[in-house]
Amino acid sequence: MEKSYWERKDDHDAIMAFSEDYKAFLDRAKTERMAAKEIVRLAEEAGYKNFYDMDSLKRGDKIYFLNKEKSVVLFDLAADFEEGMAIVASHIDSPRLDIKATPLYEEENVALLKTHYYGGIKKYQWTAIPLAMHGVVVTKDGKKHEVNIGSDAADPVFTVTDLLPHLSKSQNKKTLAEGIIGENLNVLFGHKPLDGSVEEAAKALLKEKYGMDTDDFETAELEVVPAFNARDIGLDRSMVAAYGQDDKVCAYASLRAQLDGKNRTKTCVAVFADKEEIGSVGNTSMSAKYFENAVAEVLYKLGVDSNIAVRRALANSMVLSADVTAALDPNYPEVMDKKNAARLGEGVCMMKYTGARGKSSTNDANVEFVAALRDQFAKDNVLWQTGEMGKVDEGGGGTVAYILAETGAEVVDLGTALFSMHAPFEVASKADIYSTYKAYSSFLTMK
């Protein structure tokens, strides 16, 4: 039995080509708004139409819903809904720093912006690295301005400073979690004064470039993310390192699987949700009703105005919760159960359950569904493995699986294993990225 996907010599060209497309996606999709925009662009290129531009629907149509520019749902209407759907659900938000509503201040001849971190981060990893700023600002004249600074090679970048080793005696005595505190994650924003004030100079530049006053920060969504782009890792170029691979590796794999499929016999759906990293709360998260509403809207336009039809469509569905997991890192083997850990290169990873400690807040998949997936993957020669998020009582994590399971659908977690998850520079095996795409493609053909 093969152990590594790399043993499939005939797939090497496909693995490398897929990863080039994936890296380009990562560079254009660093925030949830940017990811949603890119997903819609690629979907439209593949023939998908905006649901709200369609006067009627019929079997065979391909449509999308864009929810508040932060979450997306794609439908390939290949069959009657009440038979259930094949759904792959990922998320497109990632840990980051968010600019506060009143952020700008001057201290010791520099201008800084105050931030509030979003999602689970190790704060020390966000200091002394190049940072970019992306988002939108709605100014008092009602205009919405896009802000994109730092990702282009010609742009300036930002950073959060750290103490030099020479003066870190007290800091070094603290734990990793205490060494950098959240209120000190302040972004270095400027230094050149205007009429003796660096803060006033920064205000003038904001007004000139974006037409915004400082109180327009109150109506802004500005996210600070790493400025560097996706890169190959290893002399053999066998891995991808980038920001936001949790969960854009699964999002891109599911997008490609959705767009590439042909001659389907089951309605296939790709969901790209927001807010997973903060517990799936809010009206763009998986907990919101926009997906259920989208199913109802589609059924209505197909001529079915029935609440029970919506419920049956969801309850009869099969779902992959497409999210990443931790790979066994040889530098930190002590936190993993080696017999139940995912490894780089051994294919997409299935997690029957996630959660923490006593399987808290998890969807524990039914074995009948797991067995059906095993048979499907064997038929399509998909290399896959099982894994868990660390040793029992060591930690854990959650996904959107439990939310979709509340509809009665069969749900299991299936995604790519990463090194350095939630760090600004996460690592994935190109073989596993491609295996994830192959697994999602196979799933979307299940009867």
Structure description:
By secondary structure, the chain is α/β, with parallel strands linked by helices. The protein is 26% helix and 24% strand. The protein contains ten helices and 22 strands. The strands form four sheets. Strands 1-2-3-13-4-14-20-16-18 form a nine-stranded mixed beta sheet, with helices on both faces. The protein has a six-stranded antiparallel beta sheet with strand order 8-7-10-5-6-9. The protein has a five-stranded mixed beta sheet with strand order 11-12-22-21-15. A hairpin with a 3-residue loop joins strand 2 and strand 3 (71-76). The radius of gyration is 23 Å and the shape is globular. The two termini are 27 Å apart. The mean pLDDT is 95.
Helix segment tally = 10
Indicate the multimeric state. single chain
Structural class of the secondary structure composition?
A: alpha/beta
What best-fitting shape do the alpha-carbon axes yield?
Answer: globular
The Cα radius of gyration reads: 23 Å
Helix content: 25-40%
Biggest sheet: strands, sense, closure?
Answer: 9 strands, mixed
C-alpha termini separation:
27 Å
User: What is the strand tally?
Assistant: 22
As a percent range, the share of strand residues is 15-25%
Q: Low-confidence spans: pLDDT under 50, at least 5 residues? A: none
Q: What's the mean pLDDT score?
A: 95
How do the helices and strands line up, and which of them pair or pack?
Blueprint: H1 12-28, H2 32-45, E1 49-50, E2 62-67, E3 71-76, E4 86-91, E5 96-107, E6 110-118, E7 131-138, E8 144-149, H3 176-179, E9 187-190, H4 198-210, E10 220-226, E11 231-233, E12 239-242, H5 245-260, E13 268-273, H6 290-301, H7 307-315, E14 318-321, E15 325-326, E16 348-351, E17 355-356, H8 367-379, E18 384-386, E19 396-397, H9 401-405, E20 410-415, E21 417-419, E22 426-429, H10 430-443
Parallel strand pairs: 1-2, 4-13, 4-14, 14-20, 15-21, 16-18
Antiparallel strand pairs: 2-3, 3-13, 5-6, 5-10, 6-9, 7-8, 7-10, 11-12, 12-22, 16-20, 17-19, 21-22
